[in-house]
Specification:
Elements lengths: L2 H11 L21 E2 L14 E6 L9 E3 L2 E7 L22 E8 L5 E9 L15 E2 L3 E5 L4 E6 L4 E6 H5 L13 E3 L2 E6 L10 E6 L5 E6 L16 E5 L2 E8 L2 E6 L5 E5 L17 E3 L2 E4 L6 E5 L4 E2 L5 E5 L9 E2 L3 E5 L4 E6 L5 E7 L10 E3 L2 E5 L4 E6 L6 E6 L9 E3 L2 E5 L3 E6 L2
Parallel strand pairs: 1-28, 18-22
Antiparallel strand pairs: 2-34, 3-4, 4-5, 5-6, 7-8, 8-9, 9-10, 11-12, 12-13, 13-14, 15-16, 16-17, 17-18, 19-20, 20-21, 21-23, 24-25, 25-26, 26-27, 28-29, 29-30, 30-31, 32-33, 33-34
């Protein structure tokens, strides 16, 4: 993004005068792209070194913590729930009286839990996902959170429930294989959610706009695909792109990326080529990344395509800028506006020029492991955390350089967040606040 567009997007997403560098209000942060202007962040830590506090959590989840002021919000399943383990199967089981899902508010200064509220029940596990996977979003006064059953709730900062919606009850059974995982996107008092599905039901995929104040549906539009079997499934989250004097909604998955009118949901343009061989298993996990007037779109690793965002109709060829076979499957990339930083699932890092896809530095190995969390870019550094809880800290820029390798030795799926001079990491066991002491 240019400096002005980044500022406009920041004002559109973050409200009520909070300092951007001191907040992380949604899954991909204040800029919606995994970046923040936070500075003074630590480079090295362990389970004891540079740990301001760590708070025990009931169970694991893939949701990223969000931060506003002196409050950190994080989701969790119930401790000891009957399916409280990764890599079990979905759709069966769970004692509904025990398998609770929670939104937890933590004091940022002390790490103490202020309150814990139920956001549903029936924890089910699908591969690396449970029903606490979607990340919350906040505007500093309220916090909104979805669960894997498609229930969406609004709370105030004291933990009082304001309203609740049930997307499955209203619009049909979910058919995504491993459970719903898209996080809500907040923009100017409206929540945008995508539900792209097809593995287990014939119910249509759709995009939904909800009034954040009362939960009322503003619009709902179908989002069709010709993908089959697992390909219609998307676990990604919608994003915003600045086009002209306004914004459009970017939705990725099911073999396509689409741009939608924010007022009506109407599909303005559609880009294809993301499933060139019409494979039946091209589900989408990584979200699209918007940089200025370019949207960088993942598939199932290959291809990874860059499109212009100002198109109309079919933009598959007319707005395509470049593509590569070295995209990610699960982690969503990040960018400093000029360079694109990709961390793939196997711990291979790659940097390309956003504008033309040329190589800044070629594929390079970081700490070996499996990577599901999306990288954080802040303070001139890239933070990439593996499922083993090991964070490789890279220097951002034209030269590949590893600055540190930090181990927490705990199962980690959630992407790291940063606010002020602190990094927040949610592992299976703990929520860590890490800062330079």
């Amino acid at each position: 993004m240019t400096g002005m567009d980044r500022l406009l997007l920041l004002f559109a997403i973050v409200a009520n005068g909070a300092v951007a560098s001191d907040s992380w209000p949604q899954w991909r942060g204040p800029n919606g792209d995994g970046t923040t202007s936070a500075t003074g962040l630590p480079v090295s830590w362990s389970t004891t070194e540079n740990v301001v506090w760590r708070t025990k959590l009931p169970s694991w989840a893939a949701a990223t913590p969000i931060i506003w002021g002196d409050t950190v919000f994080v989701t969790s399943a119930e401790e000891g729930s009957s399916l409280n383990r990764p890599n079990s199967r979905l759709f069966e089981g769970g004692d509904a009286n025990r398998d609770q899902l929670y939104l937890i508010a933590v004091d940022r200064k002390t790490g103490k839990v202020r309150w814990q509220q139920s956001i549903g029940h029936g924890n089910r596990i699908g591969n690396k996902q449970n029903m606490a996977s979607p990340s919350p979003v906040t505007d500093g006064e309220r916090v909104w959170v979805a669960n894997g059953h498609g229930e969406l709730r609004a709370f105030d900062f004291s933990g009082r429930l304001i309203w609740m919606r049930d997307m499955q009850k209203d619009y049909g059974k979910f058919g995504v294989q491993f459970g719903y995982a898209s996080s809500p996107l907040l923009h100017e008092g409206v929540l945008y959610l995508q539900n792209l599905q097809g593995m287990y039901t014939d119910d249509p995929s759709y995009v939904l706009a909800i009034d954040a104040s009362d939960g009322r549906t503003i619009w709902k539009v179908d989002r069709p695909t010709d993908g089959e079997h697992e390909t219609p499934d998307s676990y990604s989250t919608a994003s915003l792109a600045k086009v002209g004097d306004g914004f459009i909604l970017i939705v990725a998955g099911a073999g396509y990326v689409t741009g939608h009118d924010l007022e009506t949901g109407e599909e303005i343009w559609r880009g294809g080529g993301l499933n060139p061989n019409n494979a039946r298993n091209y589900r989408t996990i990584s979200s699209a990344l918007v940089v200025d007037d370019i949207v960088l779109v993942p598939s199932r690793r290959r291809p990874f395509i860059a499109f212009r965002t100002d198109g109309k109709g079919d933009v598959t060829e007319s707005k395509k800028l470049w593509s590569t076979d070295y995209g990610p499957d699960v982690p969503t990339p990040t960018s400093d506006g000029e360079r694109l930083y990709i961390i793939d699932d196997r711990g291979i890092a790659l940097s390309l020029k956003v504008r033309d896809g040329s190589t800044v530095w070629d594929r390079s190995r970081i700490e070996p492991g499996t990577y599901s969390a999306s990288p954080l870019l802040a303070d001139g550094k890239i933070y990439a955390i593996s499922e083993e809880g090991t964070t490789t800290v890279l220097k951002a820029g034209d030269v590949f350089e590893i600055l540190a390798v930090n181990r927490l030795d705990d199962y980690t799926l959630a992407s790291p967040a940063a606010a002020g001079n602190q990094i927040f990491i949610r592992t299976a066991e703990y929520l860590y606040c890490i800062g330079s002491n």
